[in-house]
Amino acid sequence: MDSIPERVNKSKIGQPSEDFEVLLCHRDRTGWHSHCQLFPPPPYVHEHSYSEISSYSVVSGGSLICISVKDRGTYVLDTASRHLWEKVGDWKPPFQGKVEYVPELKLWFGLSADAKHLVAADLSTVDSQPQIVGHWKNELCPREEWIELRDVRLVNLGSGRFCIARFFVTSVRDDFGFRLYDETFVVLTGVEVVPRVLDGNGEVKLEMIPHKSRRHTPVNGASIEEVF
User: Fold this and answer.
1) Could you tell me which residues come within 8 angstroms of residue 169 by beta carbon, excluding any fewer than 6 positions away?
2) Which InterPro entries match (predicted)?
């Protein structure tokens, strides 16, 4: 599904649409099989204007697809039975973009709403707005002359480990301070989120451990557009 689904007539709400296609897998006695199935778009697409999908995730053990849209709220799609969308509230989760579940920590991780930093929240229930249980801003301290080019990318490496990709541009200058050319590059930082027991009462707090950062500068006019 596109981040901004095509507008459809209100009379067609609930009907399958080519704008939302799902790959379904199942297994029988002969082995694994897969096929594509059309699903209905979210119900807000009959309105005259709406924003792009700001965040999306899978909850309830994989049976619900959850999306949030600015000024429209949060919707879930039941993929296990009814295959229908339901609005669960006017609130938005504290994320931007893709949100992923980490079973070892029983929490969902993604980038903050300003698309800058790693955050964690509990989405086990979608009946109310989730609260942030972890927010980390210090995985990288870029130089003052580095200017961010585009949104940060987050890659889930499993077991609470992530790669955070930041895209920058900076000006290369000569000895007199005159700009020679602009240089674009990406910085990849590995981080790990682990639980820590704070005191004898057993209180646990999440801690982010930054690991190595590596800068990669493409050559011959190439550029890195995505990290996944």
Assistant:
1) 146, 147, 149, 182, 183, 184, 185
2) DUF1668_ORYSA
Structure token digits, residue 185: 């590059």
Q: Which residue has the tokens 């949060």?
A: 74
Which three-class secondary structure state does DSSP give residue 169?
A: strand
Measure the CA–CA gap between 71 and 183, rounded to whole angstroms. Answer: 38
CA atoms within 13 Å, Cβ hemisphere of 183: 16
Contacts of 118 (CB under 8 A, 6+ apart): 109, 110, 111, 112, 134, 135, 136, 139, 154, 162, 164, 191, 193, 208
- Residues paired with residue 173 on neighbouring β-strands, in sequence order: 179
Rounded to whole angstroms, the Cα distance separating 151 from 93 reads 18
Do residues 85 and 43 make contact, with C-beta atoms less than 8 angstroms apart? yes
Of 23, 45, 44, nearest in space to 34 by CA: 23
Q: Check: CB of residue 109 under 8 Å from CB of residue 99.
A: yes
| Torsion angles phi and psi, residue 115, rounded to 5 | 60, 35
pLDDT per residue over 82-95, tens digit each? 778 889 999 888 99
| C-alpha dihedral sign at 215, 94, 75, 158 | positive
Q: What is the pLDDT of residues 159-172, one digit of tens each?
A: 999 999 999 988 87
Predicted TM-score (pTM) of this structure: 0.83
Which two tokens mark 40?
């209905």
